[in-house]
Design brief:
By secondary structure, the protein is of the alpha/beta class. It is built from 6 helices and 6 strands; from the N terminus they run βαββαβαβααβα. α2 packs parallel to α3.
Length: about 150
């Protein structure tokens, strides 16, 4: 699993510059198999990832689900670096991120839909509108107890 947050952020919550981030994403997409999580479609690296992917999984979750997820994440990880995050970036209360999530459906979702319209005909798009759908999908495609192949 490749976390775009881990590729983008440097210790102390310092953003990578665009060229550095694109290079990191390009290197990750050169692996024989990969799964990336994250958005970052407004960065040039989003085009790299879309161009290299054979399947895109989209979580189109309600705002309340996303906000609950943030609160749960803070409650369980505050002050610690989560495994999928860049080193030196401990979980924190971040009101700018809360605003990003709170306004996502209105401000950013249309851009995401436009981004996904540019998938090639040979690429698959699988959309989940709740977490149960994702769990059911994984249960169908992965044998019980199988290790992920990434």
């Amino acid at each position: 699993m490749v976390s775009l947050d881990a590729l983008f952020w440097k210790p102390g919550w310092i953003e990578s510059d665009a060229a550095e981030f694109r290079t990191r994403v390009t290197e990750a997409t050169r692996q024989p198999r990969w799964i990336m999580d994250g958005d970052y479609i407004s960065h040039d690296a989003g085009h790299v990832r879309r161009g290299a992917a054979d399947t895109v999984f989209r979580f189109d979750l309600p705002t309340r689900t996303c906000m609950t997820g943030i609160l749960t994440r803070i409650a369980t990880s505050h002050g610690r670096v989560r495994p999928e995050m860049a080193a030196g970036c401990p979980e924190k209360i971040d009101f700018a991120f809360w605003r990003y999530v709170w306004t996502y459906r209105r401000l950013r979702r249309p851009r995401m839909l436009e981004y996904l319209e540019r998938l090639r005909p040979d690429q698959s798009l699988i959309c989940f509108t709740n977490r149960t759908q994702a769990d059911q999908y994984l249960a169908e495609v992965a044998p019980a107890g199988a290790e992920p192949a990434y």
